[in-house]
Structure prediction request, 382 residues.
Amino acid sequence: MTKNSNSKNDTVSFNYNSSKRGAKHFQKRASLFFATIILVASALFGGNFLLNSNPNSNISTVASAPTGTNLSVTFLDVGQGNCVIVESNGHYMLIDGGNSQYSSKVVSYLKDLGITTLDYIVISHYDADHLSGIIGVLNNYKVTKVISPDYESDTKTYGSYISIMNKKNYTAIHPSIGDEFNLGNATFKIVSPIKYSYEDENDNSVGIRLTDGSHSFLLLGDAEAQSESDILNSGIDLSCDVYMVSHHGSSNSSTNALLDLAKPSIAVISVGKNDYGHPTEQTLNRLLSHNISILRTDQDGTIIAYSGKDFLKWNINFDTKSIKKEATSNIPTEASYIGNKNSLKFHLPTCPNLPTAGNQVYFDSREDAVNEGFSPCGVCKP
Ligand SMILES: [Zn+2]
Ligand SMILES: [Zn+2]
Prediction:
């Protein structure tokens, strides 16, 4: 989608099949007609009619991938953290894995997709809310290429990550700005950082611009103003339709300068309960003042974007939907408790963290579940 495609589609050509003079006359009358409509609408809607007061009106939702989808980008709801799954023509990439609490969710989500091999794992940087979930994925899946920033961290999580990389005999690629990679029908280019020696590790985040030729997605990890300003100065193409808001909406990221240049129409914020005030009001206001629609995983659950030649569609609250589907189709009515074959936890049928259909076992009583060696879920507390 080019930046102006919406307005182009909305522009009606009055010249079609008309004589030149007739068309001109008709255009004049038509513009008078529209001017009247706008005036009336302005009066009715308090004058905000021309200001696009609801930027979210350009989000078009669907329940599943439309035919012709070339690229899908899933912003998995992993609470406070990032986890993005990209698919194009049967090829998969995982960008960040969320924190440890959600590690099993990430692994089982990939299992549900029937994935055995990931073409790429991109680790934006080594903070736990991005790296932890990667460790489980490396344990469970074959990965062709691991892309990560060129710095080291002294955290336990980083230590576990290095161990599993060694065990699997994988060597990470530390990319340079401008490097390009293919994923199915899509490509992605490394757009940040310009160096790996920032004092703030967030600024060392590996950022990518992903595109299928029709739409582009900009994901910069937790990059902050310093790295943003350096990549803006580098002159690399940052234009995008969809921007994953850096550092979960921190006020020190997503500067006006970046938004002016990247010009996204939709922003996705991956965020959960946190003590940092993410996303901050300053960032939300900057997005709104740029007329950018906002989707957030804490409000919209798992968010999937489907890109095709002539469309960009959104599937929001994907978790809730899939759980609802299971609830109606798979749970025997007499079951009082549902166990997870893998984690050996048991849940109330209403728990938001139910296992996928294939991993469910059913118990008539709490006692049965406990006797079978299952322990109660910490969320629904059965
Ligand atoms: Zn983070
Ligand atoms: Zn971070």
Summary: The chain has a mean pLDDT of 85. The chain is about 30% helix and 20% strand.
